[in-house]
Amino acid sequence: MILVTGATGTVGSEAVRLLAAQHHPTRALVRDPSRVPHSAAGSGMEIVTGDFDRPDTLDAAMRDIDTVLLISPAVPAQEIAVIDSAARQGAKHIVKITNHKASADSPVGRRRGHARVEAHLKSTGLGYTLLAPNLYLQNLLTFAPSIKQTRGFTMSAGDGQAGMVDARDVAAVAAAIAATATDHAGRTYLVTGPELITYTDVAKELGDALGHAVEYRRISPDEHRQAMIRAGLPETVAASNAQVFGLIAEGDAAWLSSDVASITGASPRSLRTFIADHLTAFA
Length: 283
Ligand SMILES: NC(=O)c1ccc[n+]([C@@H]2O[C@H](COP(=O)([O-])OP(=O)(O)OC[C@H]3O[C@@H](n4cnc5c(N)ncnc54)[C@H](OP(=O)(O)O)[C@@H]3O)[C@@H](O)[C@H]2O)c1
Description:
The chain has 12 helices and 9 strands. By secondary structure, it is α/β, with parallel strands linked by helices.
């Protein structure tokens, strides 16, 4: 049986939908049972309530689990708690979402965090598979209110290219690997869309789809950090986001792979498809 954590989130809810549709024995871990994804409710899928900060609830959720699809907000202590519970309860394999540039000496804190979790996972002796996605196209949905109100969005990634990927494709890769985990033991997959995209491309594609110009308003990472703090983000999160946007401007996310097609048998969704599928959010 597969345990999917983060089952109410962007990737987890789609992974749960796919695993339910394919009739794989699956249990969805949620921390609030009133937020069970529609695809899981009524599918016969098991639902379990659990919290990454409460190991007792994780141990209960792990019973009879072979493979864990570990999706979380990527707080290292929480992911380590899930891995330790899996090891205690006899699970065999963890599929973890990580970062392509995770390393112990990364200048980016969240990448050092992923590296710490990876090292811990490898030390347990559990089977593992790492999925390293590029930026999610779903991040563009944060621009929707601004595009509706001002026909533009603000960003600090300059002309940096990114192999942005639809989170639905991340979920499809994750579900396919979780269903055949032993075939993917010890492997790392890079999960990207089909093309390198800049925020200028995003503005143009949105404009074409909406039938009016959409302006990409460029600001510096430091201006962006201050704007995010004014908008209510914690200072550490704003600083980390701005740091990553600055790196993207320098080409840090300009990488592609063919792993989505080789794992799922289908081409990854393009920016144009993502916009068409979410047009009402921007209109
Ligand atoms: N965004 C990107 O561009 C990007 C790119 C590459 C990799 N990633 C990685 O993708 C992962 C995030 O995936 P996502 O977008 O699907 O995340 P998400 O939508 O933010 O979902 C996070 C999930 O974790 C659950 N959760 C949070 N705290 C919990 C707790 N204490 N106990 C149990 N569950 C808890 C949430 O439940 P609630 O619904 O109850 O809050 C939710 O289901 C991260 O590892 C991130 O590093 C993101």
